[in-house]
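re: ur question from the group chat, yeah i did fold both. here u go
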Amino acid sequence: MLQLFVYGPGLGLPSLDPSCLAAILYCSLAVPKDEFAIYQTANASMSPTQKLPALWDGRAWVGSLKNVLFYLKQKGYNLDNQLDKDALSKINAFSCLLERNAYDLWLFKAYVCEDNYVRVMRPEWSKVLGFPFNYMTPNAFQKHAKERLNLTLGINEDKLSYEASKMPISHRWTNASRQKQALLQAQAFRIRISSLARHLYGSLELLVGDSEFLFGEHPTSLDCLLYAFLSFHTLTENFDQLTLRSTMQSSAPKLFHLLESLKTKWFPSNEQDGLLSSVSIEKQPQNLLAVARVAWNNVSKKIHETKNSFQNVSISSEKQLSLARNGFFILASTFGFVWFVLANGIVVIESEEDVDLDTSRDESSSALDTDVRSREVEQRLDDNTRDEAPPEAEEINASSMSAEDLLFGFEGENEDDDGDWEEEEMDDEEEEDFDEADADIA
């Protein structure tokens, strides 16, 4: 079973990209409904060309519109097999015209016109794509559009945009002239785009006849391409700048009527009667692996572009010598600074053993200081306790006391710290008084 991977719907069309819409139309008309399925995705990394549409047949991938159509025709799904050589040559010629000029007009209208891009295209892509593709895919399309139109039509972004110069007031006239020149350049490019559109529409109108399709009563690959590319010109009315709808109505009315009839036939108001009513359409979920793959592809692409830009830059021998000298001086200065810091002890480099030894020493010294301080505190508490404690009263036995004890107290009243009793010495007068008192008692 064939699997077709395309971008999701937008702007009222089955896909927001013209190439994807052309592949959807061709598969719906050429391939039986039960032999293919449509998957709406935001990741184009599975495509060999990194572009959608992409086709998977169960064994290999086919990327980009031209390759997908060629592969389907080789497999027998060919809408042009009943045409003669003259019709086939016209299909090849006008297909190239649509893929180049019609696609250029769409890129200019949708991505180069900044107002259309900011106001219409970015919100539409945000609805179709999920994170992080809603930030990367629109910018990638805009970058591709500017690069392509610069090559094909010579449209330069710098000539279309104007940015006021940050200059003094005396040079304000310079900004006014630059703004006027930018507006004139933009108007000239729009006139050129309108002329290109009229030429394209006039050439395609020559193919339009009275039949239902371009080459008779059966659709061809050119009908698919015609509707896919020109429907974005005329059937999308959300754009203010560069309205190609009025240009086609005035320059190619028959072509405009053909597009309206194809829209009514393939995508009527009742979706059950439309071309995609019985086609299997699913939305491919995004997993973390796909997001990581896209992120890696973007990073590797940026690295490759940067590498190529450096390789393309030619450096003279004098410049190389100057860079070598600057590198030598930077290296020598760095080495001298590191030596100065280490020699003066501003930064000390220690091994793990030295750090462990210093830590053990600090811990032992702190433990010793703590022990000494605890002992001093205990000693102070004991001294304070002894000073504040009241003397214990002793029972006095008068019958066993002598006269000397009653008059002068105990001989050991004054007790020193060692617990020894000391007898106080008496002078001569005290001895005489003591003898008299003893004699009276006797």
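okk and heres the other one u asked abt
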Amino acid sequence: MKKSSLFFVLLCLFQISKLGFCLAGSVHTANNNENKRHRFISVTDFGAVCDGKTDDTQAFLKAWEAVCNGVSDKSFLVPLGKTCMLKPLKFAGPCKSSSITFVIRGNLVAPGYTWDVGNFPEWISFDSINGLVVKGGGVKGGGTLDSRGSVWWGSGHAQDKDRPTAMHFNNCNGLRMYNLQHLNSPRNHIGLTGSKNISISGLNLTAPGDSPNTDGIDISKCIGVDIRDSVISTGDDCIAINSGSSYINITGLFCGPGHGISVGSLGRNGEFATVEEVRVKNCTLSNTMNGVRIKTYQNGLGYARKISFEDIRMVDSRNPIIIEQNYLNRGKIEEVSFENSSYQNRGGKNCFYKTESGNGRGVKVSDVRYSRIYGSSASDEAVTFNCNADMGCEDIVMDHVNIVSAKAGQGVSASCTNVRGSYFYSPINCIKKH
């Protein structure tokens, strides 16, 4: 081989080796960057045993302090295969990082006993944390919270105030939560208050159908909440939208058993209450005590308006469509067909309490649209609009509402009191067109 050829071969080999070194260095750098982007702070690094029995509360708080006070984005991790027992605790902000991810790949369980709700009204709470992401294990499994609510459901804790919320988020703007399973809350499973721009998906919330007031998600004083593609099967409202809330979208929800999807109750104790810009779409309500419901107190003030229910399927739901402006007021008691939970130990039926009209008070209900509501009703009355004489209900539209009886050979009816609006292609209606 000539010297020139040998030199050329050696030069090529050098360049190839150099290229390989550069590529290897690039891959190494990329892996390091990837690790930096996904660094976790695990609760087990701070002493959490996570055997389902040992109290891991302090380890969680120490791990949270490290994440919250860190200058770079880090993720809080509950490792896969671990079951961590937690006493009531609060994850508080504000944090130095603009975004914090709370990853639950393992399981969280509450203590198997009750505690003083006056001091600890929630089991797990997050407060003043912007950009918080709470996510479960997804395809890798895990991501389960068991609140052990059965120890709270007896007669000793019959009142709501005697039982804690399982998970609560306050002042958490930009919250994202997805791929979580949550079992057996003592009271409502998830509470959202005073927050903006919330996105929730892939939740599975479960409690017995007769567990008391175990709402799925309660929303209060929130603006911009998007809930989609979730399953809620509990003992009360699947979702309750309370005062101060607006721009709420609920899509792709399976609800049942439970009490359906509710706006309210609004105006309790004479308060001024508001809810507006609510859209519920593409949902199924199966074997629920109520379907889609708006409920207000007669002595309250304020409004519920710009609300739509679209493409809703009812499966053996009692009371599929309800507006009730006389909800639980003081005065004459009138029975209705909503049965109480066996845990509440009150017996008989629920009651609406009505006061005499003429006091000029009420929460005004207007601009409500029911479009393409179909399926079966377990009760004889499929539509109930019970509006008070002072305010009434205005601009109520029924468009392609077609609900049949779940009982073979029977029909269903509708009842309207003090309602103004219109209907289109709806065999079941009682609205007088104006």
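fwiw on the second one: The helical segments are 3-37, 57-68. The radius of gyration is 27 Å. idk if thats what u expected
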